[in-house]
Amino acid sequence: MLKIVGVQRVSGDFNGNHYDNINFHVLNQAPRRPTTAGSTCEIIKVKTADIPAVFGGLISSDADYRSVIGMALNAFYDRYGRVINATVSDYKERG
Q1: Which of 69, 80, 79 is nearest to 88 (CA)?
Q2: Which residue from 45, 46, 53, 85 could staple onto 76, CB 3.0 to 4.6 Å apart?
């Protein structure tokens, strides 16, 4: 389970292509890799235009982004690695 610890909107142009993304900074408390100890941080990137569809209308404004900090994020990807659906819920520490 991933805990949302920060949210960042990133936009600009790269090689003539415009981008506008919401980056969810998440903490992975229990990565399942033998070479990793402790927690790891990851970024889950979602196109800003896709946010309402991905989150089912739960998140639609900057205020909503702040409200998900501290929540658990479960993201689902398509075959190209794009987030196509996501859920947020209360975060529960693993015991």
Answers
A1: 69
A2: 85
* pTM reported for the whole predicted model: 0.82
Helix (H, G, I), strand (E, B) or coil at 63: helix
User: Would 93 be classed as within a structural domain?
Assistant: no
Q: Is residue 37 part of a domain?
A: yes
- Which range marks the domain in which residue 42 is found? 2-88
CA-based nearest residue to 45, from 60, 13, 71, 23: 23
| Alpha carbons 7 and 69: distance in angstroms, whole number | 7
The token pair at 11 is 């936009």
**Residue 13 covered by a domain:** yes
9-49 pLDDT, tens digit each = 999 999 999 999 999 999 987 666 777 777 788 999 999 88
Task: Answer whether residue 95 is part of any domain.
Answer: no
